[in-house]
Hints:
Blueprint: H1 8-23, H2 42-53, E1 59-63, H3 70-84, E2 93-97, H4 98-111, H5 114-122, E3 126-130, H6 139-154, E4 159-163, H7 176-182, E5 188-192
Parallel strand pairs: 1-4, 1-5, 2-3, 3-4
Helix pairs in contact: 4-5
Amino acid sequence: MPLDISSEKGARISVATEELWLSMIPAEFREVDLASCKELNPRLVEFALACVEIRPMISMYFFGDWGSGKTTLAFALIRHLMQTVAKEGYFWPNYISARDLHGRLTKAVREGYESYEFEIWTNCDLLFVDDLDKTTPTESWKMHLFEIFNKRMTNNLPSIITCNCIPEDLAHIIDGALASRIADKKKWEIIGFPKKDLRRSKIVQF
């Protein structure tokens, strides 16, 4: 049953949920919010924000060079959702890097608890997988990714993926069928980021 967030108890649970989420993500992103994205193109931020505010939420594939702000914007959007989605009920996102997800799934399959592990990533309210191209694209990895994201799309559960690869190169690192699903404009938006390393420069030109 959704939380009655109109009550004081519900509000406290909402705050506690956000605090728990922040404790589970990299420290460098714990203070990130939409105000942290001021160096990005405002139209890009507004478009991504619109994608998470419509219902059902649209999944997003962020691509661009290193340091272009993909991960920062993803965390900012999730924090925005955690601060506003209380109007609708309980909300729990999951974040993981592709490299860590690959390791966890490989271990789960090897040790025989893959059903439990897959449920963690297929059933959460929102899944954010960072740096999709930072792992070895084995056939088993491609199969696991397809299983996770295909089930999420079937159940209308949104996801955010960040990657350095342009969409045309996706089929080299994931299953071709999954790449085709990500190209479905009805369920995914593909958003390209400027070729600018924001870690090295505070000046952004468009």
